Structures are given as structure tokens and as C-alpha cells.
Amino acid sequence: RVKRGWVWNQFFVVEEYTGTEPLYVGKIHSDSDEGDGSIKYTISGEGAGTIFLIDEITGDIHATERLDREQKTFYTLRAQARDRQTDQLLEPESEFIIKVQDINDSEPRFLEGPYIGSVAELSPIGTSVMQVMASDADDPTYGSSARVVYSVLEGEQHFTVDSKTGVIRTAVADLDRETQDRYEVVIRATDMAGQLGGLSGSTTVTIVVTDVNDNPPRFPQKMYQFSIVETAPVGTAIGRVKAEDSDVGENTDMTYQVKDEEGVEMFKVTTDSNTQEAVISVQKPLDYESKKVHTVVVEALNKFVDPRFVDLGTFRDQTIVRVSVLDVDEPPEFRPPSNLMEVQEDAHVGSVVGVVTALDPDTANHPVRYAIDRSTDAERIFDIDANTGAIVTGKVLDRETAGWHNITVLAMEADNHSQVSRASLRIRILDVNDNPPELATPYEAAVCEDAKPGQLIQTISVVDRDEPQSGHRFYFTLAPEATNNHHFSLLDIKDNTAAVHTQRMGFNRQEQDVYLLPILVVDSGPPALSSTGTLTIRVCGCDSNGAIQSCNSTAYVVSATLSPGALIALLVCILILVVLVLLILTLKRHHKSHLTSEDDEDMRDNVIKYNDEGGGEQDTEAYDMSALRSLYDFSEIKGGDGGGGPGEGGLSGNPASELHALPQWVQSPDLDFSVFRDYICKKVEQADEDLSVPPYDSFQTYAFEGSDSPVPSLSSINTWSSSSEQDFSYLGVWGPRFRQLAALY
């Protein structure tokens, strides 16, 4: 049999329905429905019972709400057919879809705004600037609701837009940033392919015109004037000029240069990278008297030139700069500037070394006076004539002491000494032969006892402080006092050296162990000078290989007698030694007597510091009285010396014990304090004369008792017997200062 099933068509519902009655969507129907109402139709799923309602008997579906396809494009539902009596499914549950049919209810929107684009000025027509895109929420698959086209609402005289792609392009080729650097273009997007009734949206596109180097630099003025003093040092800035450029950024970077030959020589132009100004500065010293006005041609040109715009013209400009030189009072100038003079070292005092000349460069041409800067010639070796500039010798010259002299000569205006110029002058002292040649060192040689004739024992060279232009040439020979020498011979090698050889067979140390060989050396002059040097030759014992084993040190002169010069030198040395010994002995005796006199007057000042407080008069142990004892060796007072104590008679009657009695203090009416006064005055005088003493008062304590004190020593250290009985009652009348002492005794 034929299978039963559902019968329906595809369901559609129009969006944005605005009617008052429910909108009929469609009918679901089972082929088993005979129309007697025995079948009940129901739906479930999205919007069932709310948006969509179904008639249970007929199966008609209606939409009760306004739908929006842009929010939801379709709804999925399920249909059931049941027996009204038994509620059993007569058909299997089936799924169906209700599609929302689109209408053109959404306008195009530009979602990526705001739009900002840029294009270079002078770009050709059709140059792409940027692209804009609009989107339409309508169904692109149904009708033309989502088909968008573009057009220009504002700015169409400068830009166009592609209707399909939205690409904005230039409509003209003469966009000039210097005239207008920004454009606001309004672009419209219309759906329905631009047909009548289509919806539209618009956006504003900002187009910035970027700069290109299409403007050359231009000087605002064709001439500039500056002034500068003639004494301005090299590198001094004279002034600044600047060429204007309508471009921006690196297109305004410029370089400046001097175009005329005179300006290139005298002036220099640099570019200030921050301000793009030309800085004109002095390149060579200026001179008002030579030229008062200079004309300089300065050229400005762009650093970066765009080859696309070369045909627009030259990208450079020139201007004239007039520099006026101002006159100032200048110091004299030395002419010619030669700074080297020469003079023979044997020139007499007052000889002319050379002449310096200086002139006043000013128009007034003031007279010039000369002087030598004495800080460069402190010894006044040279003088100069203040009027003529002639330099003369002031002292005897010696090339060997100073071969060169560097002095500074001053030139000043006669009526204005503040205008001073300086010139360094080098004076070379030319050599004359005034120093005899000398042996290079005090030569000493050794010869073996078994030496053979003709054996080389020493090669001799000499030195000469002179420096002849033709070089040194020395001649060697034995001194006249050694002409009778038969032991050694001298050979001039002709290269400023000489060789000493043995002249006999063998030597004997026991007979003579040292030989002094005088050698005469003569230079080539002129005039020829000579000197005599001595070669000391020691006779030594040698082994079979010629190696020296031992030598003696006793000297024996080859000649019979010493030369007069040697004798004089020996006597002078002995005399100097004697004088030195006598001087040392005299100084020692003087120093000893000085120490003795000082010891006689040695008044030792001892300040004993105690950091604890004493116990008053009852404290007999806090202070050591012996610390105040004078270092003078006072005479001891014996019992028989007339000390005048109460126990004097008993003490004198016992000479065997020699017991010292304590003296009784008696105030003498004619006590002499001159010793104290003289001593203190002497100390004050010494303190006043000592420069190392600080300039403030000082407190000094003197433990000086005096040599003639009427009170003898109270010490009983020398008492031989401790069992002597004495009466110390007299201590009670000595006064309150001795009250504690009287109580102790």
C-alpha cells in the first residue's frame, strides 16, 4: 500500500510586516487527514507558541510578531499529527524551516572610519590615495538590497572614487601642499546598485597632501651688511643669513657656500643644522690698512633634490654680503719674521748679534721702542737698543755652557706701551776651538810579567767639548817627559784613537809594578790645543793563558820626577785636607764650649701634672716634693758651717758623726732677688726673640731655688745616724707654710 506522509510546501515569511492581523505563513497537512477533525496538528521548536501559532484542526501557521531578518534569518520547527481521541502519533515527527524573507531595510555603513589618507603633492591624475568600504546588513543573495555603489558627495573637483571598489584617486595633477595641505572628501555608499529607492550612507575622508621638494631656497634680501674689527681672531663669527624655503622637513635642509674667490680666501661659511642659517666667520686675519670692505657672494642650495622636479628650475639662490673692517690701534709687527741669529762664542761684550725690526701697521705709524723680556734672559746675557732694535752681547758667551739662547723681544709704541707685540728669537752660539782635547776616561791597563814586545795593551780615545764644522781630528804622541821611555810605545791609528804596545820583553813586579805613561793629545784647531793625560799600567801576574791572577797597587812614575802641574795639584790637595781637619777641630771645640755654657745656665722647667685632687694639708703622700728639686748642685751645709740651728752646738761637738742639722729659716732683711729677676728676664727675652713661639702668653713654672738661699737643704739623706736626738721646735716659728712639716718632725 502507499505510505502515508506529510504534505506541505516551503514556508516563507516577510520581515518587518506591519499589518494588524497575524501573517499567514503556510499549512501543514497529513495525507491521512480526511477533514473530519479527527487529527490534531501541533508544532514545537523555535518560536512555537509565541511567534508562530498553528490551527490544530486545519494546520494553518500564522506569525504573530514582526520579524527582522538581520537578527534571525530562519526558524527551525517540528510538526506532529496526533489522533485527537487517543493522542497517538499518526505520522512521525517531522522538522521544517520557516525562512524570513529579506526586504531592503538596512542602509550601507562605513565601519572602519574615520578615514585618513595621504598623497604627495603634484601627483599625476589617477594616483591612488586609499580605499573605503561600506557593508550592508541586507541579504546579498536576494535581490539588490546589498549591492553597494560609491560616489563623491564633496571634493569631486580634486578626487574621484571607484563606484565598485571604493578606491579614491586624484582627479587633478596640480595639488600643491603650499596652497592647501588638507582636504575633507565626503564619500557616499548606496545599495540597490544605486537605483532609485536604494538606501545610502556616507563618511568623511581626510586626505593630507604631503610635501615634495618643489620649491627652491630664496634669500629674502639680495644684500646683507656686517662689520667687524680688524683684530678679530680667526674663527670669529661675523653674522648670519638665511634662505627661506616653503617646503617642510628634510626638503628645507640647505647647505651654504662662498662662490667668489676673494670670499673663499678670507671668509668661511658653515650651516647651522638647527636653524638652517649660514654662519659667516673669519678665515684669515683682516687688515683695515690693506682693505676696508670685502664683498662675499653666498649661495644656498637644497641638500636633497628630487630629480622629478629638476625641470622646475635651479634649486639654489645667491646673495651678496658686504663686510666692513673697522680700524683699531694695533701693536707693532715684526718684519721680517726671521727668528734665528748666530754669534761667535768668542765675541766681545757689546758685539752686535743682529737687528730686529718692527713697524706700526696703523695709519699713524707711531715710532717703535724695543726691549727684551727679562723673564727669558734673567742673566742679562743680551741687551737691545731701544731705538734701533740692535741686539748686542751683555756677557761673555760660552757655547759649551749654553749653545742656544731663546729670548723674547718686545716691540711697543713709543707713546702707548700697552700696544706690545712679542717675537721669539733663537740665538745660536757658534763654536770656536777654545777647549783642549782630553782622554775619554782615566785609562788603566794591565800587562803580564811575561809580555812580549809589540803586544797591544790599551786603545785610547779622547773627547773634545768643541764641535768644529769639519769634524774632529786628533793627534797622539808621548809627552816630552816620557821620551826616554823604553817600556812602551804609542801608535796613532789616524782615526782619533791611539794604541799602546809593549816595547820590551817581560816585566818584573818586584822591581816596579806600576807605570804612569803621559800621553800628549793635540786637536786640529785652529788654534791647535793640547793636553796631557796619564795611562796607568799595572804589572800583573798571569797564568799560561794570559789571564791576570794578581796585581800590586804601588805607583811608580815612568819619568824621573813628577811634572810641575802634578806637584801643584798634589800640594793643593794636601793643603785642603789640612784646612778641613783644622776647621772640624775648631767647630768641635766651639760646639763643646757652647754646650758647657748652656749647661751652666740650664734651668730645667718641669711641670708635673697630676690628674687627682690632693688631700689637703693632711695629705703627705699625694705630691713628690723631690720633683721640684733644682738640678743645681747646691753646696751641702755642714754642722760647722754656721747654719744657725738650735742643735748646732751639739752637732759641731761630734765630728765623727758629721750629722747634718736641719737649718732654721730666718728671714734676712737684705735678701737679694736679683738672681731670680735676671733669670726670668733672660727667659722672657729668649721667648720674645724666638720666632717659632706662638704669639700668646704662656704660663711657666720654675723650680729654681737660687744659689745663695739662706735656707739649707731639709733633706736628711746624708744623715749618718738616725738615732740622733734633735729639737725641731724651731720649725714652728718658720711660718704657716712649714706648719705641716713641723708637725711631721
TrEMBL record:
<dbReference type="GO" id="GO:0007043">
    <property type="term" value="P:cell-cell junction assembly"/>
</dbReference>
<dbReference type="InterPro" id="IPR002126">
    <property type="entry name" value="Cadherin-like_dom"/>
</dbReference>
<feature type="transmembrane region" description="Helical">
    <location>
        <begin position="566"/>
        <end position="587"/>
    </location>
</feature>
<dbReference type="GO" id="GO:0034332">
    <property type="term" value="P:adherens junction organization"/>
</dbReference>
<feature type="domain" description="Cadherin">
    <location>
        <begin position="111"/>
        <end position="219"/>
    </location>
</feature>
<protein>
    <recommendedName>
        <fullName>Cadherin-22</fullName>
    </recommendedName>
</protein>
<dbReference type="InterPro" id="IPR039808">
    <property type="entry name" value="Cadherin"/>
</dbReference>
<dbReference type="GO" id="GO:0016339">
    <property type="term" value="P:calcium-dependent cell-cell adhesion via plasma membrane cell adhesion molecules"/>
</dbReference>
<dbReference type="GO" id="GO:0005912">
    <property type="term" value="C:adherens junction"/>
</dbReference>
<dbReference type="GO" id="GO:0000902">
    <property type="term" value="P:cell morphogenesis"/>
</dbReference>
<dbReference type="GO" id="GO:0007156">
    <property type="term" value="P:homophilic cell adhesion via plasma membrane adhesion molecules"/>
</dbReference>
<keyword id="KW-0325">Glycoprotein</keyword>
<dbReference type="GO" id="GO:0008013">
    <property type="term" value="F:beta-catenin binding"/>
</dbReference>
<keyword id="KW-1133">Transmembrane helix</keyword>
<feature type="domain" description="Cadherin">
    <location>
        <begin position="30"/>
        <end position="110"/>
    </location>
</feature>
<feature type="domain" description="Cadherin">
    <location>
        <begin position="220"/>
        <end position="334"/>
    </location>
</feature>
<keyword id="KW-0130">Cell adhesion</keyword>
<dbReference type="GO" id="GO:0044331">
    <property type="term" value="P:cell-cell adhesion mediated by cadherin"/>
</dbReference>
<keyword id="KW-1003">Cell membrane</keyword>
<keyword id="KW-0165">Cleavage on pair of basic residues</keyword>
<keyword id="KW-0479">Metal-binding</keyword>
<dbReference type="Pfam" id="PF00028">
    <property type="entry name" value="Cadherin"/>
</dbReference>
<dbReference type="GO" id="GO:0045296">
    <property type="term" value="F:cadherin binding"/>
</dbReference>
<dbReference type="InterPro" id="IPR020894">
    <property type="entry name" value="Cadherin_CS"/>
</dbReference>
<dbReference type="GO" id="GO:0016342">
    <property type="term" value="C:catenin complex"/>
</dbReference>
<dbReference type="InterPro" id="IPR000233">
    <property type="entry name" value="Cadherin_Y-type_LIR"/>
</dbReference>
<keyword id="KW-0812">Transmembrane</keyword>
<keyword id="KW-0732">Signal</keyword>
<dbReference type="GO" id="GO:0016477">
    <property type="term" value="P:cell migration"/>
</dbReference>
<feature type="domain" description="Cadherin">
    <location>
        <begin position="439"/>
        <end position="556"/>
    </location>
</feature>
<keyword id="KW-0106">Calcium</keyword>
<dbReference type="InterPro" id="IPR015919">
    <property type="entry name" value="Cadherin-like_sf"/>
</dbReference>
<keyword id="KW-0677">Repeat</keyword>
<comment type="function">
    <text>Cadherins are calcium-dependent cell adhesion proteins. They preferentially interact with themselves in a homophilic manner in connecting cells; cadherins may thus contribute to the sorting of heterogeneous cell types. PB-cadherins may have a role in the morphological organization of pituitary gland and brain tissues.</text>
</comment>
<keyword id="KW-0472">Membrane</keyword>
<dbReference type="Pfam" id="PF01049">
    <property type="entry name" value="CADH_Y-type_LIR"/>
</dbReference>
<feature type="domain" description="Cadherin">
    <location>
        <begin position="335"/>
        <end position="439"/>
    </location>
</feature>
<dbReference type="InterPro" id="IPR027397">
    <property type="entry name" value="Catenin-bd_sf"/>
</dbReference>
<dbReference type="GO" id="GO:0005509">
    <property type="term" value="F:calcium ion binding"/>
</dbReference>
